[in-house]
Amino acid sequence: MLSLWGMSAPDGRLLLFPILGILAWSSGGALALCAARLLRFSPKQTGSLFCCGTFSNIGAIGTLVCVVFFGEESIAWVALYRLCEEAVYYGIAMPIAARYRGSGAAGISVQGFRLTRLIVCVLFALGLGILFNMLGIRRPECLSDLATVMSVSAAVLALFSIGLGLRLKTLGHYPKSCLCIAAIKFLLVPLFIGSLAYAAGFQHVADGLPFKICLVLASMPVAMNALIPPALLSLDLDLANACWIVSTVALLIVLPVLALGILPLFSWGEKVRLFFYPVEVFLAMKRLVVAICCFMLVLSTFGLAQAAEYKKEYKMSIVPGASSGWGMSGTYFADIVREKTNGRINIKVYHNSQLMSGMQTSEFLLVRNGTIDFALASTINWSPQVKQLNLPCMPFFVAQAQDRYKAIDAIEKGKSGKMLIDAIEKKGVHFIGWGENGFRELTTNKKVKSLSDLKGMKIRVVGSPIFIDTFRALGANPTTINWSEAIVGFQQGTVDGQENPTTGINIPSKMWLYHKFHCDWHYVIDPLLLCSNNDIWKSFTPEDQKILLECAQAMEKYSKALSRLGQDPSYLAYLESINKVPAVKEPYAELAKNGMTVVTPSASNMKEFIQATKKVREKWTNSIGKDIVDQALRDIEVAK
User: Fold this and answer.
1) What is the largest CA-CA distance in the chain?
2) Looking at the predicted structure, is the pLDDT value of residue 218 above 50?
3) Which value, in Å, is the radius of gyration of the alpha carbons in the chain?
4) CA distance 7 to 206
């Protein structure tokens, strides 16, 4: 308002200025889509490149450059140019970007072309400024300084926040994308918009000021807003980040070219002014120095941003207690990471579901939104959000293999395991490595060796639909009460049994205090997922990411050795070699020592269990995805 109020001789052609802004953004997006198609980009890369081509930083950087180059009067023209910015960004750009999102991306509400409060305020301020100007009301001189100070201050604050967000680690992965965006932002769009502005005669308005402003604003880099749709829609955020950084830094080259090479050609209509061109060049250089200093201030925050990326402590979530095999695996990972990174990455393990107030199935969402940094999680607890993770929970699926441990290893290392990892990462969490809680066995207050023995028994199971379906198919009465209530039920005899991994849960929980029988039927396995928040993973240097992956591999060997104790002497030998032998070396001997009878169902009884749960496997094959299930079977077959 203040700038329009003080504008000299408003021209009717200023009504065309917002249209030039719309054409600049839309042409940039269209060119980016064409480039993505020529380069055969994936949908996620295409969506991110489109955002970078469309979203331009005319608010912070554009305003600052115009004020430095042309003075306070330019603010009014900038405001006119970006009048429809919000409507274009939210009404057109974001819906188009949403077409390229991954299957796991969250939806996004679109404001469209509604008159939001922000647009109404902008229109009111612009109209008021024009009205005061046309009525001949003289603007106080002090308001000119106020408008300049407010504009520059807002720009500097925005630039400072931008500097804090810059990340340099992924730049080398996107050279083609950065080159395309540089060509679009600094060559093609300025040529297109500059030609339209020239044709509209803006070089003859206010000594060519609107033409020059139009050319500057059409040459602005990728806006910080370009990173928002990729983050919300699960597009390629690293690509957008790289284009943003490169185009912003490129201004150090573009600004001198604009100030000393292009703008002076359109600055003066009278040939006599060319005599003073050296003076004008000097003044332009003076302004240019100020602009470059502002950008150097932003770039100087790189070091601060990089130094501040690592937290003093990273939170890691573990569902059971520290004495469980699961809990010990998480602690082992945290310890070796701290050792190998010399304390740069300090992971604190929170056991007993502390970080999610006991709500185990909320863990995935808490990792995704950054409340939790790392998690060593069960596929069971994450299956409500990632349905494909029900694969290892299909009853007697892995257990039917000739070597059940070889089978699960084949799945994790094979194509089906990659499909599971992709499903997790499409939902917005980064996968690091596998762990293992073990095959889930049945402990009961009466002997179970056949299908008929289970009939009518009240069994506490995990609160997941596939477990309820399984035990109903077996003739039992499944209940999903929490663990503390289950213990009371065991003590009072109102709950007949439960299912959990032997070394992972049953022995640390001393199930012999409640049940005297242990059915070794291996009906499902409980793999563990070592994952991290996406942004946390990206904040680490490539060197530290490599260390984390190496530590994850070491943890996997340790976790599986704990889970498989008693199955093969090699697992105990490995734990002895790393000086990590648990208190219980022989799990089955430990069960017998404490009065538990281990029951191993016969081959004919196992066939009964497998046949009784056939429809459950068929039902959940459709839910999980037949392609993954079939691939898992092929992976198991290859591993024989």
Assistant:
1) 107
2) yes
3) 32
4) 9
